[in-house]
Write a structure and sequence with these properties.
With 143 residues, this protein is mostly helical. 45% of the residues lie in helices and 0% in strands. It is built from five helices and no strands. Helix 1 crosses helix 3. The model has no long low-confidence stretch (mean pLDDT 81).
């Protein structure tokens, strides 16, 4: 009588689980990682960031009735809002970045994101302003 080979004893693991067994290779399709576009600003947007260097935090507040009357009476000039809401929100974020660094109010950052900018755009603006502010301090020009 011919005997059949025993593949595994009841108290031993199956041969596939043995440490010396070859692993079964399963083909896996790997897709090339999606290329993420670098954040960029247009020339107009960069000019808004540059012009914001001259503005103060006070330029972001709405003047009250008395302040508006005094401004018109004495001919005081207050930077006006930009006509394009996207550029105005960029200006506001840039003014905070020039004056307070990374301490931009949450509401301004939310408005920035709501206008179609991303956090990558925000970091780009902050990094550019920080670099310019550092070079201004080194050359003695200040803000």
């Amino acid at each position: 009588m011919a005997s059949q080979p025993i593949t595994a004893w009841p108290h031993q693991p199956a041969p596939a689980a043995l440490p010396f067994a070859k692993p079964r290779l399963v083909p896996v399709e790997t897709a090339a990682p999606a290329r993420v576009a670098e954040p960029r600003l247009s020339a107009l947007e960069w000019s808004v960031v540059a012009l914001a260097e001259r503005d103060t935090i006070a330029s972001l507040r709405e003047p009250g009735r008395i302040a508006a009357a005094l401004e018109s009476l004495f001919g005081l000039h207050r930077p006006s809002k930009l006509a394009n809401p996207r550029l105005e929100v960029l200006r506001r974020v840039a003014v905070f970045a020039w004056r307070q660094g990374w301490k931009v109010p949450k509401s301004e950052l939310q408005a920035f994101l709501a206008e179609g900018f991303s956090l990558d755009h925000y970091e780009l603006v902050q990094a550019s302003i920080a670099k310019r502010a550092t070079s201004n301090r080194r050359s003695g020009r200040g803000r």
